[in-house]
Amino acid sequence: MHPAPAFRVEDRVILLDFLRAHPFVTIAASVGGRPFVAQTPVVVRDLDGEVALDFHLSRGNGLTPHLTQGFRAVALATGLDAYVSPDWYASADQVPTWNYQSVEAEGSVAPLDEAELIALLDDLSAQEEARLLPKKPWTRDKMKAGKFESLLRGIQGGRLFVERLEGTFKLSQNRVEADRLGAAAGLKDHPIAQLMRNIL
């Protein structure tokens, strides 16, 4: 995460809402001295007050064999981002930067059993199909008998137990108002520009 306090987000409600809105994450881990990165959609779970991210990986993914013994990992969710030109600032002698939103969730990862994996897949489909309303939601009941079970053998589920959750929403909060609003004007209709304008 960005070290500047001005950009730090610590409100868990905001961070969890961000993860739910941006569920396609990058998981990074170092196992046996080797770095691994995988991308996967997640479902945010509340397990009696403990937050977890459930995900699945292909059996062919380099991280999958390590799920059995578990490992520590960081899941990174990203949102809007935009290049900011110094030409847009009211202040002179500035340099380019990049504004962005990201949330990190760090913790230990353990495997899901088959029942938990099936529940994850059903919940993940429901979560994403809900974004497509009024389309009638897809469910696995639409698949022919045996097909789902056959495909299930090709993936493994995992659960990241969140021990650290923090975010960076870098929206020019460290700039004087004229610079911030000038950068937002320069970005025109880019969605991040409205977030920059809304800062008090």
Distance between the termini: 23 Å
CATH topology: Pnp Oxidase, Chain A
**Main sheet record:** 8 strands, antiparallel
Strand content: 35-45%
CATH superfamily: Electron Transport, Fmn-binding Protein, Chain A
Which residue ranges are poorly predicted, with pLDDT under 50 across at least 5 consecutive positions? none
CATH architecture: Roll
Amount of helix: 25-40%
Gyration radius over CA:
20 Å
Mean pLDDT: 96
DSSP summary, beta strand count: 8
What class do helices, strands and sheet pairing give? alpha+beta
Number of helices: 5
**Coarse shape:** elongated
CATH class: Mainly Beta
Count of the domains: 1
SSE arrangement, N to C: EHEEEEEEHHEHH
Question: How is this structure best described in words?
Answer:
- With 200 residues, the chain is α+β, with helices and mostly antiparallel strands.
- Helices cover 25% and strands 38% of the residues.
- It has helices at residues 12-21, 114-129, 147-152, 177-187, 191-197; strands at 8-9, 24-31, 34-41, 43-47, 50-58, 71-84, 97-111, 155-170.
- Strands 1, 2, 3, 4, 5, 6, 7 and 8 form an eight-stranded antiparallel beta sheet that branches.
- Strand 4 (43-47) and strand 5 form a beta hairpin.
- Helix 4 packs antiparallel against helix 5 (191-197).
- The chain starts with 7 loop residues before the first strand and ends with a helix.
- 25% of the residues are buried.
- The model has no long low-confidence stretch (mean pLDDT 96).
- It comes from Caulobacter segnis.
- This is FMN-binding negative transcriptional regulator.
